[in-house]
Amino acid sequence: MNIIFWNVRGAGSSDFRRIFREVVLMNQPDLVFITETRLSGERANRIIPTLGFERYIKVDAMGFAGGIWLLWNPERILLEPTGQSFQEIHCLAKVNNHSFLLSCLYASPITTKRYKLWDSLAEFAGMHNLPWLLIDLGFSGPLFTWTNNHQNGTIIRTRIDRAHANQSWLNLFLDSKVYHLP
């Protein structure tokens, strides 16, 4: 199973669609989770079907903040949505007769909203006992996954993107690896 998690900082440009197609062609993902699309409504509904995935779940951005898209092809992975909010999408997933929970998160930069996300995750965890894609899986590749792109000496770089799993999920998918793509 190959999953791409990508903070795109805006999915409205033609550059995004071109780069997206290149990344998908190179990596052949079963599922793509896109955050910070900064798109909502009809504009998002026009772009998503052009990305080459048969199914999707969309959480609209609030103004120019957030926006989550989860894209997949059902012949490679089956997803049944179980809940969503501005910061999260939860699904029951099935791959090769293995069922597990998949939670795709985009934590708000606003502290109070992040606390609501953590409360929601704690509640969700208490309701389920299936393998769940949540222990930090580590990574290989570039150290940082986000930068503010400032070039005048005020550049900030950090690792904000992470993949997490519970022990049941790790036992099910022993060869799991996380790669940060350049």
TrEMBL record:
Keywords carried by this UniProt record: Nucleotidyltransferase, RNA-directed DNA polymerase, Transferase
Chain ranges passing through the membrane: none
Claim: Nucleotidyltransferase is one of the keywords in the record: yes
Superkingdom field: Eukaryota
An annotated Gene Ontology molecular function: RNA-directed DNA polymerase activity
Record SUPFAM superfamilies: DNase I-like
InterPro entries on file: Endo/exonu/phosph_ase_sf
Name of the protein in question: Reverse transcriptase
Naturally occurring in which organism (per UniProt): Senna tora
High-level lineage: Eukaryota, Viridiplantae, Streptophyta, Embryophyta, Tracheophyta
